[in-house]
Specification:
The complex is a heterodimer of chains A (about 160) and B (about 200). Chain A is mainly β and about 160 residues long. Chain A contains one helix and twelve strands. In chain A, strands 1, 2, 3, 4, 5, 6, 7, 8, 9, 10, 11 and 12 form a twelve-stranded mixed sheet that branches. In chain A, a hairpin with a 7-residue loop joins strand 3 (about 30-40) and strand 4. By secondary structure, chain B is an alpha+beta fold. Chain B is built from five helices and nine strands, in the order αβββαβαβαββββα. Chain B has helices at about 1-30, 75-90, 110-120, 130-140, 185-195; strands spanning about 45, 50-55, 65-70, 100-105, 125-130, 145-150, 155-160, 165, 175. Chain B has a seven-stranded mixed sheet, sandwiched between helices. In chain B, strand 8 and strand 9 (about 175) form a beta hairpin. The relative contact order of chain B is 0.17. Classes of the chains: A mainly beta (about 160), B alpha+beta (about 200). The interface between A and B is medium-sized, with 32 and 35 residues. Strand 7 (about 85-90) of chain A pairs antiparallel with strand 7 (about 155-160) of chain B.
Chain lengths: ~160, ~200
């Protein structure tokens, strides 16, 4: 019953505002997006990374299929990993699966949104807008606050 | 019968002596200086002012050497930001230390592009770029791996070694700082390098 109410409420919210931020969490259907951030770019660096946490509260897997942004000529979803002392990066052409009931973290050193061909530098304290499209949940615009150049988490986020 | 046993035992003794001699020769053999040649390469490249630089640039002061590129999404900016923090934390103590950022993407990284990029870190870091063949021989000397990876839309990125090499006053390899090495450990290695140089 509670679950049905919650679903009804979620549906109602969905109709009014597709992306309601609540306590810093953006809800889009069964998808909850939190802790978005990016990093300040160095002079002349034409690329930047976007990071956030995606929770799939639903019972069906969803997939982040694309990311688009006005700030970059091209925005892709990438995965990187250290192999020995070599950092390797790959585009996830098929997007990123968000399994049912699981949380996927896009973080430095791992999966991230890759902004290429930046039209301007990312400046600490400003925000960068990116539109994420999920296979089932649809699209939502997320604002990524720009943190320091080597930040591992959004400014002001606390480690508990 | 007794004679035959004696003969077997004599052969065993001979074999034992021979083994001892071989083992002794191997152990006493002079150690080869493998480390001494690591990173040693002659090169002719340009710094971020467009001035020629060669292997003598690493002489006369301790150095931190990194191979990267300005289109690098994460490893390079992170390492540059950490390097800036090292310089700041060392202060006066680190005044002899010089840093070098060698581009593994010389086709795109012009001296002017590199200048602003490394200038963000410190005035004691030099960007190095130039002839791809010369870059390649320098990278090979340091055992640095780098490889272009095509991306959708005709762009490319580069997989590359993410470590920072530490060189003494003579340009000899002394150790590395790993990617995202803990700040205190990195500073310890740099202080150690400064003390020995």
């Amino acid at each position: 019953m509670i679950r049905l109410l919650r679903a009804a409420l979620a549906a109602a919210i969905l109709v009014v505002t597709p992306a309601l931020a609540h306590n810093g969490v953006i809800h889009l259907g069964d998808i909850n997006i939190s802790l978005p951030f990016t990093r300040a770019t160095l002079p002349n660096a034409p690329v930047g990374g976007g990071f956030l946490t995606i929770e799939n509260a639903g019972t069906e897997a969803d997939r982040l299929v694309s990311a688009t942004s006005e700030v970059a000529g091209e925005t892709q979803i990438h995965e990187m990993a250290m192999e020995g002392d070599v950092m390797k990066m790959r585009q996830l052409a098929e997007g990123l699966e968000i399994p049912a009931g699981e949380t996927v973290v896009l973080a430095p050193g791992g999966v991230h949104i890759m902004f290429m061909g930046l039209k301007q530098a990312f400046v600490e304290g400003e925000t960068v807008a990116v539109t994420l499209t999920f296979e089932k949940a649809g699209s939502v615009e997320v604002l990524l606050p720009v943190a320091a150049a080597a930040a591992d988490m959004p400014a002001g986020a606390m480690v508990h | 019968m007794a004679l035959r046993t004696l003969r077997i035992w004599l052969w065993v003794a001979v074999l034992g002596l021979a083994l001892t001699a071989v083992a002794g020769a191997l152990l006493l053999r002079p150690q080869q200086k493998v480390a001494g040649s690591f990173g040693v390469a002659a090169f002719d490249l340009v710094d971020h002012h467009g001035k020629p630089v060669d292997e003598t640039v690493f002489a006369g002061h301790p150095s931190a050497l990194f191979f990267g590129f300005t289109h690098c999404p994460e490893v390079c900016p992170t390492t540059m930001a950490e390097m800036a923090a090292w310089f700041e934390a060392l202060g006066e103590e680190g005044q002899d230390l010089r840093a070098y950022f060698v581009s593994v993407d010389p086709e795109r990284d012009t001296p002017a592009l590199l200048g602003d990029y490394v200038g963000w870190v410190s005035d004691r870091i030099t960007g190095i770029t130039g002839d791809p063949v010369q870059i390649d021989s320098l990278a090979r000397a340091w055992g640095v791996f780098y490889e272009k990876v095509p991306l959708e839309g005709g762009d490319y990125t580069i997989d590359h070694t993410a470590s920072v090499f530490l060189l003494d006053r003579d340009g000899q390899f002394q150790g590395t700082i790993a990617y995202r090495e803990d700040m205190a450990t990195a500073l310890g290695k740099l202080r150690n390098l400064l003390a020995r140089s």
